[in-house]
Amino acid sequence: xxxxxxMIMVCNSYRVAGDAQGFCxxxxxTSFVQMISEGCGDRGIDAxxxxxxxxxxxxxxxxxxxxxxxxxxxGVTEDRLEEILxxxxxxxxxxxxxxxx
Length: 101
Description:
27% helix; Glutaredoxin; 5 strands; five-stranded mixed beta sheet
């Protein structure tokens, strides 16, 4: 397997007890996976897109993390995702949406 350039993780609020019940999931983060995958494909970005368990920053959700850059984005919406992917084409961050650096 060839390692992708990026791993993009979408918080889906899965908890140890099993059910997804946190903020990110309730705000529709599950729909982000397909949107990000298609957006990366359209832009030629080599990325693996996956969901995660709760990332424990619910107050800032929905949360998307991009590795290896260690970009943590909060308050993600579909419109913001477009901006985030546009910036990622140049290996850059959208600073105003970062919740951690």
